[in-house]
Amino acid sequence: MVSNAIVIGGGIGGLAVAAALGQRGVAVTLLEQAPAIAEVGAGLQVSPNGLAVLRALGVESALVSRGAVRGQAVVLRNGGDGAQVARLDLARLRKDQPYYFMHRADLVDVLAGAAKRANVSFETSAQVASIRPGPLPQVQMSDGGTRRAELVVAADGIHSVARPVLNGADKAVFSGQVAWRAVVPNSFGHPDEAHVHMGPGCHLVSYPMRAGRVVNVVAVEEREDWAAEGWNHPGDPLEMKRAFACLGGMAAEMVSAVADVTVWGLHLHPVAEVWEREGVALLGDAAHPTLPFLAQGANMALEDAWVLAKTLAGGGDLAAYQQARRKRVVRVIKAAEKNAWRYHLRPGVMRSVSHLGLKVMSRVAPGRMIGAFDWLYGVDVTKGAHRR
To answer: Range of 328's domain?
Structure first.
């Protein structure tokens, strides 16, 4: 086990791995380029596989006290009129496997608290210029300073400084899809469910958070023109309303209620071939950027964080960490890409047959529908390390 580490990035993955290492006695310094550890984003879904890590870190109760909503179902709806197509009943999961909807800022704040209690040191406004793997890896700062530690974990997202050092230039391509994200007041009586409103060439996902007071909205449209990557670019609510004018029912009400919105282009990135070298490791989006169509980006980062810390604590090396994680994240990413196709079917025979099949399966074999996700939700990388 290493005795000291540097974590680059104060997002969900970086905070989780900092806390997990700190709880094991590692002296951790976390570098965040922003002036403060904060998350100004919107919502996220924490499925049972991600929750297992949060429980093991001891933060589940804090999230519930902040208004994390226990999801009852994922409902697929016809985007035009809002009619239900299929229902994935999350209540059929085991009682110890809740599925939560929460605000990213709440999760970041709670994880930061766990890291501080584990004696993690924080440096904000800390801009990393480059990373140099080696017997004692080096982190060069933009202000000319240098940091050294036995382990450097790059949890610095899709624009990671470390990823090209280990893998060369990324070959990301625009997916032809643009996502809009907003938070609106829950004046619609949105139930404790995630709704996927499926339209021709577009879809909208909605779910409540913060004790149901607000609703998170993520709307995705197919577009030929390129849009910048990264989720925090300001968008025009009027342009969003025009883009999703084909949606009806509650989806139309939510789009109409949007006052502030961010927009980002979704890009396809290959999973990194090399996740580690000479004391430097990639984690989360730095290793495997994930499209948001299976709600697993944050969950995969949480799994990464626990597996990395557990592997090192058990006497393993970083190569074992990559071996333990890569196959799983590849499967998740492929499943997410397939969902985009299913959600955007245009009127015609294929859409009719697909929706009819989902409707029949939902009514005739609801247990089988939720069981199809055992490979994803049923994984617990902490293996009995839970505590509340």
So the answer is: 4-68+101-171+269-343+372-377
